[in-house]
Amino acid sequence: MHELSIALSLIELARAELKKNGGSKVLALNVKLGPLSGVVKEALLAAYDLAVSESDMSAAVLNVEDVPVTVFCSECKKISTLSGNFGGSLRFVCGYCGQATGDVRSGADLDLVSMEID
Amino acid sequence: MCTECGCGLPGEPKFSGGKKSQHDHEHAHEHTHEHTHEHGHEHTHEHGHEHTHAHEHTHEHTHEHEHAHEHEPGRMHSHSHKHSHSHSHSHDHEHAHDHEHAHDHEHAHDHEHAHDHDHEHDHSHDHDHKNTVVAVHKSIMNANNLQAARNRGFFAGSRVLAVNVLSSPGAGKTKLLTEAIKMLSQKEVDGKTLKCGVVVGDLETDNDAVRLRQSGAPVVQISTGTLCHLDAAMLARSLSELSADPTQLDILFIENVGNLVCPATFDLGEGLRITVLSAGEGEDKPLKYPPAFHFADLVVLSKADLAEACEFDRELALNNIRSLKPEVEIVEVSAKTGAGLDVFCEKLVERFLSLKQQSALGLLL
After folding, report:
1. Pick from A17, B31, B170, B278: CA 20 to 30 A from residue B59's CA?
2. C-alpha distance across the termini of chain A, in Å
3. CB contact under 8 A, B133 and A115
4. CATH number of A2-68+107-117
């Protein structure tokens, strides 16, 4: 994915939220990033630095929290957390019984969770 | 700009419905907005729509007041007249297949109104803003998801089955849809023949629209210019170019730009998503392009008449697809010979009936 345009969308979203909250300045952005989002954390951080440099958002720190992949299994009816590097593969198996499942409950996150503003 | 691959210069896509109308985008805004404003507190929830995972956990409530206007592809301006508030909570979903719902909830959430007045549009904040943390809980793909939710609500309310069709270029989408529409137009549901419409996207030309019109259906061609996929806003705008009233359609097909990458991550607000794989493309295509198959409700193996000549390993293809999504439905079709076309059309009618039934219960859930 194109981390630069993601960073630009993030900044636009942050600006809109800042205005809605009547704030004057963004101090920090808290983002949750899942491995299935297709976005690489380091690339996003680098792209973000580039995108905010010399702008009114240049002081806003970007905090990225990794979130795990969780899947729901229709066999054992449980949600399990999967670890490991998926590398774009979307083949998942239930963490309990090993049954193949396509029901992903989290892990594709690309969310602006909260902002610290002034 | 495509947030997937970065392609696409800012610029207006072009819409042509074969009508002599101007591209007045303002109309498009009103068109969709009218429908959403009819419902008092419209809460749109995404349940089980796998490619917008964020919505599983976070809900965006827009109380009639927040308008999103699209001025260019991918850019949204939000005007909040009152406020919007977001919160997150998780749902335990047992029914992963119910996609096309918009909700009306009698939620205790309503009392959060009072809360938000303290925050929103209140420029007379007397207290100092010292390092306040504000909750946002929005997907960075928020703008598209929001419009997709509006589209979904519109389709559900109008009892239209919107079908998003993805594939690589040349897999046979146009031919498949042209032949399917011809067959569907002969079928009757509740004593009335099925009415189909199409919105088709390509970078340039309206060649596909011309082909599709041979089926007799109203067709809008979206020429994206350089953008590699259709998004929810483009779909919404295209509806006003249709020569038929979209609310009077039964099935609206959306033939996406031929591309197995980017379209997969853009929710259009469809009720059914189909990915087409042709016999000449190879059995490992699904493994090479997982998202397009992972997020499909139905996979069509097209050009079945060429399978033998291409030495297409059907079993392997089926296994590969199922490894990505065990429960996905797969249909094999040759639009050219007609083989399997009736099965394909039956699946569509089934889906349409199920949508009608859900909506008929008065629950836009």
Report:
1. B31
2. 32
3. yes
4. 3.30.2320.50
Tell me: the pLDDT tens digits for B136-184?
999 887 778 889 999 999 999 999 999 999 999 999 999 999 999 999 9
The ranges assigned to domains in chain A are 2-68+107-117
- Name the nearest CA neighbour of A2 among B169, B141, B52, B232: B141
Average pLDDT in chain B: 75
CA–CA separation, B221 and A104 (whole Å): 34
Distance from CA of A99 to the nearest CA of B (A): 10
The region that residue B355 occupies, defined by phi over 0 for left and psi between -120 and 50 for alpha, beta otherwise, is alpha
- Identify the residue whose tokens are 């491995």: A35
Give CA–CA dist B355/B300, Å, rounded: 21
Q: Do A24 and B129 touch (CB under 8 A)?
A: yes
Considering only residues 131 to 190 of chain B, which have any Cβ-Cβ distance to chain A shorter than 8 Å? 131-143
Cβ atoms of B167 and B276 closer than 8 Å: yes
Residues 6+ apart with CB under 8 A from B127: none
How many CB atoms within 10 Å of residue B79? 9
Cα–Cα distance between B52 and B154 in angstroms, integer? 18
Is the pTM of the predicted complex or chain greater than 0.90?
A: no
Nearest Cβ partner for B140 among A104, A112, A114: A112
3-class DSSP assignment, residue B148: helix
Cβ atoms of B332 and B235 closer than 8 Å = no
Task: Give percent above pLDDT 70 in chain B.
Answer: 64
> What pLDDT, on the 0 to 100 scale, is given for residue B39?
37
Q: What is the pLDDT of residues A11-61, one digit of tens each?
A: 999 999 999 999 999 999 999 999 888 788 999 999 999 999 988 899 999
